Amino acid sequence: MRTWNFWPALWAGKITGIVLQLLGRKGTTLPGYVANRLDPGLLGQLAGSYESLIIVTGTNGKTTTANLLAAVLTAAGKQFAFNRAGANLVTGISGALLQNYNWIGRPKAQLALLEVDEATVPKFCAQAVPDIAVVTNFFRDQLDRYGELDTTIRLVKDALPEQTLLILNADDPLVAYLGAERTHVCYYGIVRTPESQRESRETREAKFCPRCGHTLSYELFHYGQLGIYFCSNCDFRRPFPAVQADQVRQEGDGLKFKAGSGSYVTALQGYYNLYNLLAAITVARHLNIPESTIEKGLQEFIPQAGRMERFGSPQGEVTLTLVKNPTGFNQVIRAVLAGSRQLRLLIAINDLAADGRDISWLWDVDFEYLGNRDKLVSQVVCSGLRAEEMALRLKYAGLTVDKLIIEHSLDKALEILLSQRKSGEDIFVLPTYTNLFPLRKLLQSRLKAGQGFVARNKAVAEK
Q1: What's the mean per-residue pLDDT of the chain?
Q2: Domain that holds residue 163
Q3: Alpha carbon distances (Å) from 453 to 52, 317, 423
Q4: What is the CATH number of the domain that holds 334?
Q5: DSSP characters for 234-255?
Q6: Which of 134, 200, 141, 143 is nearest to 168 (CA)?
């Protein structure tokens, strides 16, 4: 039942969105902020009008997973509300739902797909009951904001309603445990990738069984704590996935794999993106979307802003991708090194609130991967507010000091990188969150200025 202040909140939020559009601004969170000030229960009233409500949460891969699923839904001809820009707090989610409402309080579509920050899941579920909830993985991330990982996991576990269908990553024991003693649960996972190993020296968040506390054993590691695991002290083990990737390989600048009867090809790089793809496939199958449509949607998917987003020029590609925590950064480094070509990197580290004030996590990243292949690295430009700390970390990782350049200005840092590029070299730009969109804007401004950059996000063609 709608409260008396629903209508002023709805109209104020929609008017705010229109004003921002007229001013040429995105307006992803302000409409929701204004509307929630007038009606603190607005989110629940908006979400409650949808026939189907899907949320995506977890530490890494939320945005990519949600956008992959959106590509499949679009290929299937479905209309849906979506916080496409990744504004995943209460204000951003409310703003996305507001955009899909008309002036008389009715949603224009009956399906909502929402990326939800892990810490926001309890607030969301206090007002709305999702039909499907995808959980990608759990890793340490911004400890100054989230607190200890155990706290985040407990909050998510306790908040998700019993009637919600959980789509869970079977290969992450921290995520898989959410499905214990649940009736409505479905798992996805990976058989193996070319990088899977019997032993691992990587930092793992889950060394111990979440059920009994005994040390977990692994038959195979994919990355971090993700892999095929079991507890020798109790019956906790990796659940068998209903959707499982097999015959995985890197082909060209993308991935190819099979999952049951489906054969998939995508422009996404990095084996870690398999989990995002599998999550989207699992949800799509539960929505009874035809397999051919799922394959088409994933093949035509264009990586979103800063998620292995590519810019092309006659000299070669520039790839822009967000880095924000140790495990995610490790996987990006592996993807960077996968091509075995000469590399130039720009790493831009800030320590603002949205990035996380504590940058000690940089010492948990295995930059030694780069140091061990120092001959492949032509140059690393360190930028952002904490450029010196980044350069110091790379020095201790074994990179040649002469290859390290410190330049706080993002514009100048990018110019150094591009002007010194040689033929056949790959360029990767790796920023934390508050540097992501300024760097993307700089790349786009070079495109507009006619300096040779053409945005290129082309799906890998079947061979």
Answers
A1: 87
A2: 6-299
A3: 41, 9, 15
A4: 3.90.190.20
A5: SS-BPPPPSEEEEEEEEETTEE
A6: 134
